[in-house]
Design brief:
By secondary structure, this protein is of the alpha+beta class. The protein contains 15 helices and 20 strands. Helix content is 33%, strand content 25%. Strands 4, 5, 6, 12, 13, 14, 15, 16, 17 and 18 form a ten-stranded mixed beta sheet that branches. Strands 1, 2, 8, 9, 10, 11, 19 and 20 form an eight-stranded mixed beta sheet that branches. It comes from Microbacterium keratanolyticum.
């Protein structure tokens, strides 16, 4: 007889780990089962070397506040993302206090977030952005300078042997963080397993079909021995990165119609040279190249993974038809359906700059990539840096009433009308906002239970349901509290 469980999580990344943790805390009597097709969890987008580890709080990413050409730059999106990240920080803090998570330094470390720009136009924009953000309570402490001596104190590698005469400017928020989402994912799954959750590794879900009683029958196979199996679930969450689209298409839910994804890979330059690493203790973002997707904004990042410090620079876009690093070469073709073909064609027609950008990136050799780094770090030498392959990102393409189809940067939750299945498409800010995204999944899919869970959610996330940015005192108190628990105070 096929086992029936309460929840099945497809994919062993930070999203599934976060949702599983929330459900365990809110409904400890539910039976949860997770499936990961690889030999361990956190091997795709959540792996620390497949992302930049930025705790995305919109402190340094310019694409969350595009230049409007005037003083009325809208901070709403940046503030919203910061609000979301605060929820993640609060949950992590609570889980540290409860012993669910290990010593905070194993997954999060204080790392100032900076933005560095060059040229009169971008300097003027950064100055106007700073004037807007410094008034926002969640961005308290943001600093701005056009003084080379000050910027040299913040990040010496940016200023050494820089040619005089060119305008540049930088902002700095000391309260930024570097997050190892791989370590965080492992710790969450470890706790779930200790408390009754079954995590099947080397198991690939091949099909899922809803039964007459509303449950889902999932068929899977052992990726090593090809042994088949099946399980039934009252609720299914698809947190399988780029393969979430494939799983949701196989489910047959009408809500997935019109969606497609465009895969974009990435590479980083990496150094562990202690003399170089010791001089850079920040994450520094700049403007994206013309035609580049927001996920390709260049940045020079301090990283701490497994206790080792290093620097990454990039990303450099690559192209593969795979939706995951360990996906299938047929992914980009097998996603095509009559309902999403036109939106995808419209996206291709409307984004020639993106194609040009990708071709240009693919033609860069190692020396050219280090040349790009030298715009940040003039003293960079080819031999100090090695190239590593980052993760695959599947950017959402979907129907649009006016344009026929649009390429969407960000994340999108897809839920069935009856709330029995949900999945996540898209990328950045992704992992950093996993907590609010998964709370959204719970609210959509479990509306009846959700009201009864709210008091427990407030225990996990003290400011849940409030907007910190409208209350300076509350914002300061919350950030100070989580910084103290997580060990990320200045």
């Amino acid at each position: 007889m096929t086992e029936t469980v309460d929840v099945v999580l497809i994919g062993g990344g930070i999203m599934s780990a976060t949702l599983g943790t929330l459900l365990h805390e809110l409904q400890p009597d539910w039976k949860i089962v997770a499936f990961e097709r690889l030999s361990d969890v956190a091997q795709e987008s959540s792996n620390p070397w497949n992302n930049a580890g930025t705790g995305h709080a919109a402190l340094c990413e310019l694409n969350y506040m595009p230049d409007t050409g005037g003083d009325d730059i809208d901070p709403a999106k940046a503030v919203g993302i910061n609000e979301q990240f605060q929820l993640s920080r609060q949950l992590w803090s609570t889980l540290v206090e409860r012993g669910v998570l290990d010593e905070p330094s194993t997954f999060i470390n204080a790392t100032p977030h900076m933005t560095f720009v060059q040229g009169e136009k971008d300097v003027d924009y950064l100055r106007r952005r700073y004037e807007v953000l410094k008034k926002q309570p969640l961005f308290a402490g943001i600093e701005y300078s056009e003084d080379s001596r000050v910027i040299n104190q913040w990040a010496p590698l940016l200023m050494q042997k820089r040619l005089k005469g060119k305008k540049f400017a930088a902002t700095r928020v000391p309260a930024g963080t570097d997050v190892d989402f791989g370590a965080l994912t492992h710790q969450l799954f470890d706790h779930l397993q200790k408390n009754g959750t079954t995590v099947y590794k080397n198991r690939e879900v091949r099909s899922l079909k809803q039964q007459k009683d509303g449950t889902w029958r999932l068929k899977y196979r052992d990726t090593i021995g090809s042994t088949p199996g099946e399980i039934k679930a009252r609720f299914v969450f698809v947190g399988a990165g780029g393969w979430a689209l494939k799983m949701l298409q196989r489910s047959g839910i009408p809500e997935i119609k019109g969606y497609g994804v465009f895969p974009i890979g990435g590479q980083f330059l990496k150094t562990t040279n202690p003399k170089i690493v010791a001089q850079h203790k920040a994450k520094v973002y700049s403007q994206a190249s013309v035609g580049a997707p927001p996920m390709s904004v260049p940045h020079l990042d301090a990283r701490v993974v497994d206790g080792e410090s290093s620097l990454l620079f990039g990303p450099f876009a690559t192209f593969s038809p795979k939706f995951l690093k360990q996906g299938s070469l047929l992914d980009i073709v097998t996603q095509v359906r009559p309902h999403n073909l036109w939106p995808m064609l419209r996206v291709a027609f409307a984004n020639p700059d993106l194609i040009t950008y990708l071709v240009g990136e693919l033609m860069k050799n190692h020396h050219k990539k280090v040349d790009s780094l030298r715009t940040f770090m003039p003293t960079a030498k080819d031999e100090d840096w090695t190239l590593i392959q980052a993760g695959q990102r599947a950017q959402v393409m979907k129907k649009d009433a006016k344009k026929g189809g649009v390429l969407q940067f960000g994340t999108e939750v897809i839920t069935a009308k009856d709330g029995t299945i949900a999945g996540l498409l898209g990328a950045s800010p992704g992992a950093s906002t996993a907590v609010p995204i998964m709370l959204d999944v719970l609210q959509r899919c479990f509306p009846e239970q959700y009201k009864g869970w709210e008091s427990a959610i407030e225990e996990l996330i003290p400011t849940y349901g409030t907007k910190l940015n409208t209350d300076p005192a509350a914002a300061q108190a919350s950030m100070a509290a989580t910084a103290g628990v997580l060990g990320i105070s200045e």
